[in-house]
């Protein structure tokens, strides 16, 4: 009965396992995949940015960046090859949906360095960029897509933003560190049921016929998290729901001159056109979408039914939008990219919390914008579990977390399952 079971061996689950094991708890991680980080984690663009619409979101991302920057120190042990954090900076282009004034004040409060660029500076810092204002985003088969821009836009540049070079390796690093502290992993193993007694989870039933007696369970199952909540019978008091969403990220070749030799170039968040771009040191360019209203979203009832291959329609839309912004970008004739299934909360903010079933905790709704915060998510859940299991009423008196590097206090009630759906957010992956 002393085992803490983490369901999900992605970057979030591995981080939670590390922090629980590091605190001296007996941890078992269960995942139906064949390897660590094989789910949503493997299809992440792994962008590390700070542009969120809430103070908790900005403070979490800023604190987490320091853990990526000091990755070996965060892991605390030898894990072999370690993932690389590439500090390349990010330019958040101006957009009516998320005006700079809304998040710059949060940068000031939290201490995130930034520069405010006008259109001339934007053109000077990112070669070949079109600084035209095209809002709102339009489908590429809409004749208005090619209209002349109406005015120009600038950007807010955060020099400390960047990306993690290999998201799957990041999860594996965390898992190796967790194993160093005694955590065990059972892969190719699915959860088929939960045992409860007197309103508390007491066991996890697995598809091999075994049952693991436990004292707590953490749902970090990504797009399968809703199904696991169903097995646990939790969710009646949730004000925020989660749903699986199929997503595609396109690969293209960055235009000549976009980045200096050996550099990935500055990442671009372009909600004005409905896309984001980040380069790679080898001259590649990852291009994803920001869920503009003109695009249908591919919601799924069952994440296992997701079509696994990149489609021409989504690829053409994303890369053509990027080429509208980066005028020298060529649009390839054949789609190339990765497909993943995200675990999306109603307001695109994660739920890190307890539930109405004692001992059953959740780290869900994390896909799309929480990879960057994974090192901290483990610490959040470890703090919540420790406090709640010691008798704290986290609903009425939320746990407060103080950042090791930034000394910022983060109210973990901001990630409550029972929070009000935030107003004033972008309603997209940007948060």
TrEMBL record:
Enumerate the spans annotated as FAD dependent oxidoreductase domain: 5-383
What keywords does the record list, in alphabetical order? Oxidoreductase
InterPro entries to which the protein is assigned, alphabetical:
FAD-dep_OxRdtase (IPR006076), FAD/NAD-bd_sf (IPR036188)
KW Oxidoreductase (keyword) present = yes
The answer to whether the entry has keyword Oxidoreductase is yes
Q: Which Pfam families match?
A: DAO
* Protein name as it appears in the record: FAD-binding oxidoreductase
Q: Which organism is it from?
A: Prauserella halophila
């Amino acid at each position: 009965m002393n085992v803490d079971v983490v369901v999900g061996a992605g970057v979030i689950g591995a981080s939670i396992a590390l922090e629980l094991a590091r605190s001296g708890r007996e941890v078992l991680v269960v995942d139906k995949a064949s390897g660590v980080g094989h789910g949503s984690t493997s299809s992440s663009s792994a962008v590390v940015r700070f542009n969120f619409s809430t103070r908790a979101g900005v403070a979490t991302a800023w604190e987490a960046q320091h853990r990526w920057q000091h990755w070996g120190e965060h892991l605390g042990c030898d894990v072999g090859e370690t993932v690389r954090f590439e500090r390349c900076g990010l330019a958040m282009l101006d957009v009516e949906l998320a005006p700079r004034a809304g998040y710059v004040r949060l940068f000031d409060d939290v201490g995130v360095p930034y520069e405010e660029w006008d259109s001339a500076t934007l053109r000077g810092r990112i070669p070949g960029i079109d600084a035209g204002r095209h809002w709102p985003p339009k489908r590429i088969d809409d004749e208005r897509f090619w209209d002349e821009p109406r005015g120009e836009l600038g950007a807010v540049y955060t020099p400390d933003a960047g990306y993690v070079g290999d998201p799957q390796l990041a999860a594996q690093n965390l898992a190796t560190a967790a194993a160093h502290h005694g955590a065990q992993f059972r892969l190719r193993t699915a959860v088929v049921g939960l045992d409860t007694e007197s309103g508390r989870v007491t066991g996890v039933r697995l598809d091999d016929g075994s049952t693991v007696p436990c004292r707590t369970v953490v749902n970090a199952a990504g797009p399968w998290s809703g199904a696991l909540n169903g097995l646990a019978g939790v969710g009646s008091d949730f004000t925020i729901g989660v749903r699986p969403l199929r997503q595609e990220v396109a690969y293209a070749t960055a235009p000549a001159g976009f980045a200096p030799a050996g550099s990935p170039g500055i990442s671009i968040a372009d909600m004005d056109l409905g896309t984001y771009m980040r380069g790679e040191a080898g001259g590649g360019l990852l291009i994803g979408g920001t869920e503009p209203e003109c695009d249908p979203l591919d919601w799924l009832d069952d994440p296992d039914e997701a079509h696994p291959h990149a489609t021409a329609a989504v690829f053409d839309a994303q890369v053509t939008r990027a080429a509208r912004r980066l005028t020298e970008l060529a649009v390839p004739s054949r789609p190339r990219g990765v497909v993943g299934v995200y675990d999306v909360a109603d307001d695109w903010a994660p739920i890190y919390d307890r539930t109405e079933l004692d001992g059953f905790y959740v780290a869900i709704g994390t896909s799309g914008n929480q990879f960057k915060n994974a090192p901290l998510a483990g610490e959040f859940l470890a703090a919540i579990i420790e406090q709640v299991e010691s008798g704290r009423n986290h609903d009425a008196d939320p746990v407060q977390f103080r950042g090791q590097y930034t000394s910022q206090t983060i109210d973990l009630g901001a990630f409550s399952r029972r929070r009000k759906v935030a107003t004033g957010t972008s309603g997209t992956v940007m948060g």
